[in-house]
Specification:
The protein has one domain: MetI-like (MetI-like fold). It has ten helices and no strands. The protein is elongated and about 70 Å long. By secondary structure, the chain is an all-alpha fold. Helix 3 runs parallel beside helix 6, helix 3 packs antiparallel against helix 8 and helix 4 crosses helix 6. Keywords: Cell membrane, Membrane, Transmembrane, Transmembrane helix, Transport.
Length: 249
């Protein structure tokens, strides 16, 4: 059932609405669904929400694009070459233990507080996630397939196209799904650093004036973006990996 995953969010909204309607929820702490819906309409009519959404989408999209490209390139270099593995894997495994947001002060020192820093911080987090999962798939390819390729005397391009790519795709898509989430998580933080546009900036400004309704609108938009982007990746994964049978099929 395509909409079965919405059951949890729907139940959560119903509980929220009942708590607000019966007076158990103090509107000074958390606005009710009606107030949030009215604020959403006002933000859309004024164009404020759309402007901030477009800026956030651009930042997250660029960070995701550069991070995915870098993660795949590094995984291929480390997974298909011993020298690449010795040079890259240790460094990236160490970086894995360091939260990307912990690098924020250093990134500000190097790149300033402009758009470049925001995109780079997002891209760094995405790169590590994509690398870890793609590299694990590359190095986890069943040796029997490698031996079969050798017995068939496949050329290097044929070996990559028929063995390496199919073997790495499942891990790549796992990394891509996690990378989409990582891009949104990074976006929330970087948009609070010298930003004048973006959903994170809008929510931070609302927090200054205790506007919980605006904050919730931002959270809902983030949630929708995350849910839709994950659904798109899952759909692409099912199409590309249609040859693979799993328990989810």
């Amino acid at each position: 059932m395509p909409f079965a995953r919405l059951t949890g969010p729907v139940v959560l909204v119903l509980v929220w609405w009942l708590s607000s309607a019966t007076g158990y929820l103090d509107p000074r702490i958390l606005s009710g669904p009606g107030s949030v819906a009215a604020t959403f309409v006002d933000l859309v009519r004024s164009g404020r929400l759309q402007d901030n959404m477009l800026v956030s989408l651009q930042r997250a999209g660029l960070g995701l694009l550069f991070g995915v490209l870098a993660g795949v390139a590094l995984a291929v270099a480390a997974g298909l070459s011993r020298i690449g593995e010795y040079l890259l894997d240790g460094t990236l495994q160490v970086k894995r233990a360091i939260p990307s947001l912990a690098l924020l002060p250093l990134m500000i020192l190097w790149l300033g507080i402009g758009e470049e820093m925001k995109v780079v911080v997002i891209a760094v987090g995405v790169t590590v996630v994509v690398y870890i999962n793609t590299y694990a798939s590359l190095t986890g390819i069943d040796r029997r397939y490698v031996e079969l390729a050798e017995s068939l005397d496949l050329t290097r391009p044929q070996f990559i196209g028929k063995v390496v790519v199919p073997g790495a795709l499942p891990g790549f898509f796992v990394g891509l799904r996690l990378a989409v989430t990582a891009s949104w998580l990074g976006l929330v933080v970087v948009e609070q650093v010298n930003a004048t546009k973006g959903l994170g900036y809008m929510m931070f400004q609302a927090q200054q004036y205790a506007q919980s309704d605006v904050i919730i609108v931002g959270l809902v938009v983030y949630g929708i973006f995350g849910f839709v982007s994950d659904a798109v990746v899952r759909a692409a994964e099912r199409k590309v990996l249609s040859w693979r049978r799993t328990l989810a099929d």
